[in-house]
Structures are given as C-alpha cells and as structure tokens.
Design a protein that fits this description.
Distance between the termini: 36 Å
Radius of gyration: 15 Å
Largest sheet: 7 strands, mixed
Low-confidence stretches: none
Shape: globular
Strand order of the largest sheet: 3-2-1-4-5-7-6
Oligomer: single chain
Strand content: 15-25%
Amino acid sequence: MTKLSLVQQAHLAIEQVVTAGDITIDATVGNGHDTLFLATRVGPSGKVYGFDIQQQALDSAYRRLDDAGESAQVSLYHAGHEMMAMLLPPSVAGRVRAVMFNLGYLPGGDKQRTTGGSTTLAAVQASLSLLAPGGVLSLLAYTGHPGGREEAELVKAWAASLPHDLFTVSLTVPPSERGGAPEWIMVQRLK
C-alpha cells in the first residue's frame, strides 16, 4: 500500500468537508495546484478566493485554472494572506468550508521570498472568523528554508492555544531522514 503524501492527506481531509457550491480560500496560491483542487471541489456554483504576493504565482495559477476550464469560480488577489479578512466580501464570514495554506516559498520562484511568522499568524487568526462550523484550516509548513522552522513552531503554538470546545487540532509530522521535512497542521471548527 502506497503511503499518502501530506498534500494528499490534506486533500482527502478537505474532500470530507467541501462540496459543490461551497466557499473556500487558497491563502497561498503559489503555482495554483491547491487553487485548482478547490475549484474542482466547489464546482461552477461555488467560489474560491486566492491570495499571493507574487504576480508570477498568480499568472501560473491563472494558466493552470484556464487550461482546466476551472477559472470562472475563482477570484485571485495580488495581496498577502494577512489581508484576506479586509479584502473578502463580508458575506463570506462564517461560510468558508476550507482554508488552505502552504507555508514557505514559491516552488520554482525566488527562495528568498517566503511566508513569515507574523503575517501567517495574522492570516490564520483571520481565517477562524471566516470558517463555517465544520470547516477546516489546513496548513502545510515547509521547514527546510531559513525561518521555516520558526514559522512552523509559531503556528503550532497558536493552534495548541485554541479553545478545545470550539476547535479540534491535529498535527502530522512524518518521520524523515532529512531535515526540514514538512509538517501538517489541521484545525477544524466545531461550532
């Protein structure tokens, strides 16, 4: 039996809560893989909002979405994920079924431009007010770049501090022979 990657595990978890017509967010668009995944889950009657600070990332994501015929239900913002609460329509508050984060740098891009602890903490905190009951917040933290380990530890401490009567938190740290392996943090809103 083939072991699932953390990305595959995150996608499976999101498939359990996201259906056609739902609202989702890709907080770190990157090359658009998760954006496309979310777009296919919500279908033409749903909505995906995405955020990235790099135009290169947004261009790549738009191409991927257009090629798959899944761009109509997607709105991408050239802005940091910490801006999501300010940029999204107020009507989405409490209605988002999933928010996905991939923390680190743009694959194939400038490895010096990375997500950072302070903006990520602001973004994950804002995400909580957007989540619907039963909605999930998925964070893949890539720890192998400078600052990556520190960012992951900040997010894990934040997640551990959430009220247990409102949220469940799971952490997956696969055993690895190499340093800097990714970690997966998932938060689900209970009510």
